Structures are given as structure tokens and as C-alpha cells.
Amino acid sequence: MSLLPVAASARRHHVVLPFEIAGSQYNPVTWREIAGWDDDDQLAAFRAFRISCAPILAQTKPPADAKALGGSLHEPCRAARSAHINTAAQARVFFERHFRPVQISRLGENDGFVTGYYEPVIEGSRTRTDVFNVPVYRRPSNLFVRGIRQDATGLPNGGQVFRKIGRRKLVPYYDRGQIEDGAIAGRGLEICWLKSDTDLLFTQIQGSARVRLQDGSTVRINYDAHNGYRYTPVGRVLIDLNIIPKEEMSMQRIREWMDANPEGAKDLRRQNRSYVFFREVRLSDKDEAVGAQGVPLTPGRSIAVDKALHVYGTPFFITGTLPIDAPQAKTPFHRLMVAQDTGSAIVGPARADIYFGAGTEAGQISGRLRNPIRFVLLVPNSLDPVAAARTVPLPHARPAPGVKRRARGHYRHRAHWHRRGGP
């Protein structure tokens, strides 16, 4: 079955689709065609899905931003709430009964792409000392995100962010360099203090951390807001400067280089003008980090997705090989995941960040993941991807060699338009 576009072509031909994800193509498949589907422990995924169902069922009206799946997860969530499921086989039957599988990818591509993330466990202090002198800031009161209430928690990592001067004047917020130089110091915004700016940078990249204090207690911090600047991956900068080869890139290699080059690390950090503010959360050491959906994440089952395209709680089956066991390993990875988080670098219909839990081992696995892999989106039965496949036209064929220059130019324009229409 051909992969079919579900965005520009549909709008251009005025096709009414059961669902539509911008810049994507999809291929309805059968459960038996999904590699590894029968081998997975869907019970673990079902438990993660039920956690996501609580906020979904608590919604009294459809979300304001109409996404492809809309409110269609309500029906399987209601079924999950009343179902008595205790085995992987029962969970597998549940998903097969309430969803249809659709392989999904960016328009013109077959594979998606995954990275990994985790919750760092780092040393810190409630007070500033000679050793712990890098502040972890809470959100400043003069930071505004257009269209968002000032007292909201967990502000989106997109949108226009401003600093208020006086009663009315709004200007761009301070960037990373200005904040590191003390632009907001001395305002009582410090939650705690860390040993190094590198620790802080990696905490900001991950979005949460467990800070171990000298008395043995733990401070749990979660993402709360950002300063409005686009995130620049420091790993990409090091690759572009030919400092670390692309094939050797990992979080561990970045940290090693930064620790060995303090002045270079300072310049590198400041090329990423984005800066994250945190809030302290009341979680025990046994509790997992909380994702953007507002629910605890499940290691190995929760993923961060593009929130502009996908609905929290959506199940995805990810199938392929990943370097789980070792940096060069090709460990089979066939697993049902649940979308419960997001991130500024997670963009596209088949793009995910896999949550691996907290601590050193989770960090090592997360740090080496940058891999192509197949995505299967589980679509609730109330939406019909097969019907959509019958009505959406295929993209125009690529002109054969020798076609007149004008025709070739027309094709290039169309291809560029499709790409711009995607994320």
C-alpha cells in the first residue's frame, strides 16, 4: 500500500478527512504487519495509557487547538477506565479492539527519528557556597508569554516571551549570556545552587532534575518557563566546528569537552540563547518526573512528541533497532509508547524523545540515541484512516529525465511548498 499525504494535497483538493496531520504521510497497516507487535508487553503500555486518561476524561470540552485526533481518545479512555486488564495478552486485545494502526512519517520519508532523555541526579545546595555557586532560577515575575495567564504553571516552550518594564513597555527577555552575567541575580529567585554551569545546562535540556543536598534530602525541580529564544543544540555546534565528529556525538562527549575547556564551554553555552526556569515540585524519591501532560512519566513507555501535531495520551508503536545495550549496539526495540510530554526540539509527525528514567544509566542510554526508526500511530476507531486512504490523491510523480525545464521548475516549487507546509 502506498504512503499517502495527509496535508497539502487534501486541502488543495478539498478532501474531507477523518483526521489530518500537517506535513505527514501515512500507511494503514494490519496488526500482524507491525514488526514486534506480538512480542511487546502491552500491559506496561496500558498502565501508562490509563495514567494519561485521567486528564483526558477530566476535560469538559474539546481542546481549543483542534489537532488531528481531537477528542477521539475519550472513547478508548472510558473503556480503559472500566476494563479489568492484568496480562499483556489482555492489554494487546484492548488496543487491537479500540485502535487502528497507521504507519506515519514526514512527507517523502519512510522513517521517523528518536532521541532519549532522562532525569539527572546532581549534587546541590539550598545556599550558595564556594563549591555550589550556580543558581537554579524560578520564573521571574516580570516574564510574560503572550496569550498565557501570568499565574499559569508549566508555560509552553513556544510563543512570544517578554520582559515587562514599568506598567506597559514589553521588551524581549534576557538571553542566556545576560542571565549568566547576573541580569536577574539578587531577586530571591534561587531555588538551589549547583556546582557548574554544565550541570545547569544539562538540567535545562532534560527539563527536570533530582538535586541531592548535603543533608541527604532531595529537591525535585521541573520545567516551568523559558526566555523566548530558540533552542540551539550545543552538540550541533560542536559538529559544525569539527570539534566532535557526528558519529561520536553524545551527551557524555559534550560534557567531557566542556569540562576540559571551561572558556570554550562558556562560549558554547551562550550560542544557545535559550534559558529555562524551573519550579520546585513536591515529589518523593520514588516518584517519576512529571511530563507536560501533567502526569508522572513511565520509564521506557513515555515519549515527548510535537505538541503542535499530536494529542497527549496518543499511543505510538516504535519499531526498529537502537543502541540500548552499548554505543554501537543494534538492540531490537519494538515497544508501545504513550505521548505524555513535549520539547522544543521535538518537531515533526514521527519525532519522539524517549524517557528512560532517572540516574546515570538512564543518562548514558539517552545520551547516545539519535536514530531513525519506524512509527506506527494508533488511531481510535472513531476515526477511519482506511477511508482517508481511499480519498486522498497520491502526490504528482517526479518528472522523468528530459522533461522541459519549465516542468522541472514547477516540480521543484511544489516540493519546496510541501516541505514548508510541514513542521
SSE layout:
Blueprint: E1 4-5, H1 8-12, E2 24-28, H2 42-58, H3 74-82, H4 88-98, E3 99-106, E4 112-119, E5 121-125, E6 134-137, E7 143-145, E8 161-165, E9 169-172, H5 176-180, E10 190-194, H6 197-206, E11 208-212, E12 218-226, H7 234-240, H8 251-260, H9 262-271, E13 276-281, E14 302-304, E15 315-322, E16 331-341, E17 351-358, H10 360-367, E18 370-380, H11 385-391, H12 405-421
Parallel strand pairs: 4-17, 5-11, 14-16
Antiparallel strand pairs: 1-2, 2-3, 3-18, 4-18, 5-10, 6-10, 7-8, 8-9, 11-12, 12-13, 14-17, 15-16, 15-18
Commentary on this structure:
- The protein has 423 residues and is of the alpha+beta class.
- The protein folds into three domains: 4-115 and 296-390, Barwin-like endoglucanases (Beta Barrel); 120-281, Beta Barrel (Ribosomal Protein L25, Chain P); 393-421.
- It is built from twelve helices and 18 strands.
- It has helices at residues 8-12, 42-58, 74-82, 88-98, 176-180, 197-206, 234-240, 251-260, 262-271, 360-367, 385-391, 405-421, and strands spanning 4-5, 24-28, 99-106, 112-119, 121-125, 134-137, 143-145, 161-165, 169-172, 190-194, 208-212, 218-226, 276-281, 302-304, 315-322, 331-341, 351-358, 370-380.
- It has a six-stranded mixed barrel. It has a six-stranded mixed sheet with strand order 6-10-5-11-12-13, with helices on one face. The chain has a three-stranded antiparallel sheet with strand order 7-8-9, with no helix packed on it.
- A hairpin with an 8-residue loop joins strand 15 and strand 16.
- Helix 2 (42-58) packs across helix 3 and helix 2 packs across helix 4 (88-98).
- The protein starts with a strand and ends with a helix.
